[in-house]
Write a structure and sequence with these properties.
Strand content: 25-35%
Structural class: alpha/beta
Distance between the termini: 83 Å
Shape: globular
Number of helices: 16
Strand order of the largest sheet: 20-19-18-22-21-24-23-25-26
Radius of gyration: 24 Å
Number of strands: 29
Helix content: 25-40%
Largest sheet: 9 strands, mixed
Length: 569
Amino acid sequence: MKVDLLIQDVQVFNSYFKKFIKGNVAVLDERFFYIGERSTETFEATEIVDGQGRYMIPGLVDIHLHIESTMVTPETFSFGLIQNGVTTIVPEPHEMANVFGIEGIKEMIRASRDCVVDMLYAIPSSVPATSMETTGGSVEIADMDELLRSEEIICLGEIMNYVDIIKDPDCKTNRILEHIRKTYPKLVIEGHVPKLLDLDLHRVIYAGVDSDHTHQTREGMEARIAAGMFLEIQEKSMTDEVMDYLIKEDVSEHFCFVTDDVMTDSLVNRGHLNHIVKKAIQMGMQPERAIYASTFTPARRMNMTDRGAIAPGKIADFLLLSDLHELKIERVYKKGKKAYDAKEEYRQVVKEKQFPAHFYESIKLSPLTEQDFRVTVDVPDNRYPCRVMLVQNGSTFTEDHRGIAEVREGQLLWEESPYGLIAVFERYGINGNRGYGLISGDTIKRGAVATSYSHDNHNLLVVGRNPHDMMVAANEVIRNQGGFYVVEDGKVIASLHLPVGGILTEEPLEKTAKEVEQLRRAMESLGYNHYNPIMSISTHSLPVSPALKLTDLGLIDVNDGKIVPLLLM
């Protein structure tokens, strides 16, 4: 019998038994045809591969991530993924959607069509994430209907505004959930429900949200699994407590591993989903269970019945490993064709101008002056209790800290305080809003950082210790139509140009990774003490991430879901 590919002498991972079984594998028409003891006496193969006893596992499947978090195009992202064994992803482009609305989603999908890695998209469900910010676009129910008609959509992306689900029955999020459940009852609905327990958690699940990818605890995992929720474990949740629970308890069917957000330098230096699988194994999880949680359960969660296992009829995406515990990848096959070989040169072909022209002209702000970083307040001269955004290493959450600020002649004397200034400027030319706050903790102690890459609204975010450096950094972002700029003593000491919507670069992966690493080091040199300063600062404007954040409308008390004043009168 003729087949396209025959892989001989491999240890094949059987997802249904969660164990390796020695055998041979035949591929026909891009799908697995046979797994067992038969070989050349039965099959006439166009290509024969000697597996040499290597481990053969399905291609890794990542069902929750944002390509924009790596700040590269889908083509560049695919180039990085395939060499790390990731063959299928479910990206949710809510960053691009916040900048360009439904057009941003469609252009990301279009830019993904010729990628080696399969990219099956999630519809951003929370654009904007809340009503307490200005974005360049929104995604409404009619937009979702259009996307489900015209594009290959696999799920409704993470429902982020859990506060409104609980507190406001008539909110946009609840209307979306009701429409999706009624009109598309089989569509998977993803969730974002940090710290919720008991009645509040059950209200969100009842509304249709039945997964969570946020930072987990043992108590939270038990509550979620008990209520029928599926867990998506990202690296920041891989604490000893969490991993001990996942290893010892019989919960293999109720979780998978995901990456969510991976910085470019981390992708190049550590890997992607394969890094998380390897880490799980190093933390004591059996390799078979770690592989199961990065192939079979994520595929099943998304109803991708055609992949995630090595079995007849499944798409022939697979990896050959020389070391199981180190997850050392020798080769990657996509649809039965070799896509990557560790022993062969693997070069990126760089494409320019992959998006419409106006995607490169999205920042509509005039240059700022030092006066734009003076905070005017209409209160008598005095010392006032104030809110301070407290940054803490180990989390992108911030605390709502209490401090003291002095006001003189209508000016907040923030430079004379122990705090830095954080400012957000609406950058879409819609309303000219700007918000101001004070910041402290594990953030910069001098200089300034400015960026158009600020979740999820991607307005211009500036953090600094003096108005001049803040002005210089902000104007570099404006002049270059997007990016990250770190300034000290009036000079740019590190930068990353992000011309596509102010959030993506078209530069090669290796070059971008080096620039991101330099950016990280520059922020650390200014005193930023955080495991991921870039991700930390970019979430200062994310009003669904506890506890105190800043948008162009002002300071946001995330837990109460409302705008709050800087000064406490």
